[in-house]
Each structure stands twice: as C-alpha cells, then as structure tokens.
Amino acid sequence: MTLKNTIIAILFLVCFSCKKDNPIGPPIESYFGELSIFETFSHDKPVGVDFSAGEAVNFSAEFSVQADYTIDIAGRISGANYSINQTGQNLEDVFWAGNSNTIFFKQYEWCDVTLSFNGYDTVLTDSVLILGVQDFSNLGLLLTSFEDASEFSSVNGQETVTNGIVSNASSSVHGTNHLEIKGEGSGTYFGATRFQFNPGTITEQDVDQIYFNGFFKSSYSGTTVGVKLFEDQNNNNQYDQGIDEAWVLKVPLQDDGVWHKLSFNLSDLIVDVFAGNVQVDGILDPNNIIRIDVICSQQGNTFGTFGFFSDYYIMTYNSAL
After folding, report:
1. How far apart are CA 289 and CA 239, in angstroms?
2. Is the pLDDT of residue 14 over 50?
3. Is the dihedral of CA 103, 190, 176, 292 positive or negative?
4. Mind spelling out the 3-state secondary structure of the chain?
C-alpha cells in the first residue's frame, strides 16, 4: 500500500469512529418537530387566588418543541384581559400577579385561561377564580376610586348637565362607584373632578417618572378629557392666577361606549397660558403641585352633547399602570 493510500485509510477510520457523546444545545427536533404535550396545562391555585394578599398564579406545562406561546386570560364578568407572550419548551417561572391590559379584573370573578402556540393548532384551556383583586394604590398616589366622596370635589360649569356618582358594581371598573359627567352646549368646560392637597404630596420629583392613569368610557363623539395641574410657586398654599403656573393636557376619547385605560406621562403636559394664566419658568415641579382637575371638555367648540363615565384615578411612579 502506498503512503497516500495509507493516509486516506487512516482519515476514513478517524471520521467514522468519532461521535459526540454530549451534543451542544437541544436536539434539532425540539425546534422543527411536531408539537406534543408532555405535561398538560394547569396552575397551582385550584381553589382561587388572592391577589390582594400578594399571591400569584403559577402556570405549568411541558411540550416537545421550543415554541412561541401565548397565555390569554379573560374575565367572564369584567371583560378584562391580560396576555403573556414567551418562548420555551415549558412554563417554568411563568406566573400572573393580577395585572390587566385594559380594565381591572373583579373580585370573585372566574377567568378563562387559554394557552396557544404560534404555528400550531393546539389550544389548551383552564380557568382560575379571583378571591381578591390586586391593590394598585401602593404604586404612587391614588387620587380616587370614587368610593370615598371626601377624596374629591365636583365642580360644575354653566353647561354642565350631569356630574355625579353612579353606584353599580357590575358596571364600575373598580369597587362599586364610578363618575358620570356630561354637558351640552358649544363651550369647552362641562365640569370637573377636583383634587386638592398639600405641596410635597407627590413624592416622586422627576416628571418623567410620574404618570396619570384613569379609566374612561364615552358614547359622545368629540369628547375629550382634560387633566390640569396647578402649582403653588410662591408658597402661600394656593394657586394664584398670573403668578403660579398651570399645566394642561387634553386627550380625545373613543366614542364606542367601552371602558379604556388612559395613561400618560406628566412631561406631556404644556403650560396653560390662556384665560389669565401665565408662564413663569416653564418647569413643572411636582413638589409644588397642590391641585389637579380632571375636566370634561370637547375637541372644538361645536354645539352638542359631550361626556364620559370615569373611574379610578391614580398617579403612578416609574411606569404607567
């Protein structure tokens, strides 16, 4: 045998004698194989979950492939929903702490839970009972949930028709009560909900880290909600028009008769320089804020009926509700 043939024979034996005892990474079948369920979809709260006590629902399931999956949670009474989107081969460390995408879930509400997979027809279902709802008041400054009338005052304008509390737990976003405010005319002020407090009540000092959050429902085209903040810059415990600054933001509301969550950052507000208000330094100082008005208004100045239902106003720190 020639030297060349000997070398070829040795290389041939080496190639076919080598094998990997410890392959790196998951097998290729886990990415491109058929989806099989190894452990059925379930959770660890069969008798219900109390989010008010800090509990969470921990989900479990195991499947044969690495898959993009979605867990959809829908409340049967509230219509609230929440979605979890992840990628994996199991639901290890996947949990729900009571959060919602839109409106709040309700106490003693059954929720339907669905696990689906991107690219596969398999759908798995379960349900969970909410024994206690999540407490969001520790996320910042709760202005009101309209359960306690001492937290706010109602201010009417000349064109205000309705400005009062509706007590109906089934139609409220949170608790039993919510607000109905409505006006008719061609003006831009149909009443407001007012909150007054001492300087320093808002403890977060960075406006980029403070968010206003509220829930609104309207069936009147052209309706807007205005949020107006008033500063006490001369430290006399009141807002002095022409001396202190006021800040405002008007947001159009959808007129579909459905509850929507509204959240925005305080840095979105602009100085109000109309009707005798002035700009002082153009810097919103949260420590100076002593009053907040949530106003029913309209986008233009046409004659019509404008209004909304609203519930649960809260200033949150670091992130929107």
Report:
1. 9
2. no
3. positive
4. CCHHHHHHHHHHHHHHHCCCCCCCCCCCHHHHCCCCEEEEEEECCCCCEEHHHCCCEEEEEEEEEEEEEEEEEEECCCCCEEEEEEEEEECCCCEECCCCCCCCCCCCEEEEEEEEECCCCCEEEEEEEEEECCCCHHHEEEEECCCCHHHCEEECCCCEEEEEEEECCCCCCCCCEEEEEEEEECCCCCCEEEEECCCCCCCCCCHHHEEEEEEEECCCCCEEEEEEEEECCCCCCCCCECCECEEEEEEECCCCCCCEEEEEEHHHCEECCCCCCCCCCCCCCHHHEEEEEEEEEECCCCCEEEEEEEEEEEEEECCCC
- Using H for helix, E for strand and C for coil, what is the string for 260-296? EEEEEEHHHCEECCCCCCCCCCCCCCHHHEEEEEEEE
Domains of the chain with CATH codes: 29-132 (2.60.40), 137-317 (2.60.120.260)
Of 4, 313, 319, 305, give the one whose Cα is nearest residue 162: 305
User: Tell me, what's the pLDDT at 278?
Assistant: 87
89: its two tokens: 């081969």
pLDDT tens track for 239-260: 999 899 999 999 999 999 999 9
Each residue of 85-113: pLDDT tens digit?
999 999 999 999 999 998 999 999 999 99
Q: What is d(CA 6, CA 152) in angstroms, rounded to the nearest whole number?
A: 95
Report the C-alpha gap between 99 and 316 in whole angstroms: 15
Overall pTM > 0.85: no
Q: Which residue has tokens 């409106």?
A: 103
